[in-house]
Automatic annotation (TrEMBL):
It comes from Formivibrio citricus. This is N-(5'-phosphoribosyl)anthranilate isomerase. It catalyses: N-(5-phospho-beta-D-ribosyl)anthranilate = 1-(2-carboxyphenylamino)-1-deoxy-D-ribulose 5-phosphate. One of its GO terms (biological process) is L-tryptophan biosynthetic process. Belongs to the TrpF family. SUPFAM superfamilies: Ribulose-phoshate binding barrel. Its EC number is 5.3.1.24. Pathway: Amino-acid biosynthesis; L-tryptophan biosynthesis; L-tryptophan from chorismate: step 3/5.
């Protein structure tokens, strides 16, 4: 299977379009102010408007006020919402948009039970558990903790980069891979060469 590739945390139209030209299937926009990858609504709107067709746009939120999510949706043409906080299933579905639910994986977490709670999600995004940080840490986690029979499409995140994404794809066979810090030269600063290398490595692994 050829896994989908999402480049997350983009903050300008030029780099987003570069990622799309390299073969990214989706770009992620972070609407969480404490993140070094956060983007304002006006910039996000310009990024989405600049993208070529058939590239999905994903908006990332962390326990956001519903009014803020609605404000974003009124200005930015997002295809999918991605929730990284403690949002309940009802809070995730209230906006009438397809959504992904992120979960930070650690020993003792029942991923099958977790996925069953969010049965109407388009997929479960698994990330590394780091205390007090909702994502984008650059840390990996033990892939052996992932069950083989997860009932929803799996989006693999957490510490991926060009050097390990091929092995991750071969081992896990995820529906998609998601990278942010692994294609940066510094926090929040995307690196074109690293984006190109990541996408190439992911495509080669699927051949």
């Amino acid at each position: 299977m050829n896994p989908r590739i999402k480049i997350c945390g983009l903050r300008d139209p030029e780099m987003a379009c570069f990622a799309a030209r390299q073969g990214a299937d989706a770009i992620g926009l972070v609407f969480h102010a404490p993140s070094p990858r956060a983007v304002d609504i006006e910039t996000a709107s310009r990024i989405v408007a600049a993208l070529p067709p058939f590239v999905s746009t994903v908006g990332l939120f962390v326990d956001a006020d519903p009014a803020f999510v609605e404000q974003v949706l009124a200005r930015v043409a997002l295809d999918i919402l991605q929730f990284h906080g403690d949002e309940s299933p009802g809070q995730c579905r209230r906006f009438g948009k397809p959504y992904l639910k992120a979960v930070r994986v650690k020993p003792g977490l029942d991923l099958l039970e977790y996925a069953s709670r969010y049965a109407d999600a388009r997929g479960i995004l698994v990330d590394a558990w780091v205390p007090g940080v909702p994502g984008g840490t650059g840390e990996t986690f033990d892939w052996a903790l992932l069950p083989q029979d997860l009932p929803l499409p799996l989006v693999l995140s957490g510490g991926l980069h060009a050097g390990n994404v091929a092995e991750a794809i071969r081992q896990i066979k995820p529906w998609a891979v998601d990278v942010s810090s692994g294609v940066e030269s510094g926090k929040g600063i995307k690196d074109a060469d690293k984006i190109a290398a990541f996408i190439k490595a992911a495509r080669v692994a699927a051949d």
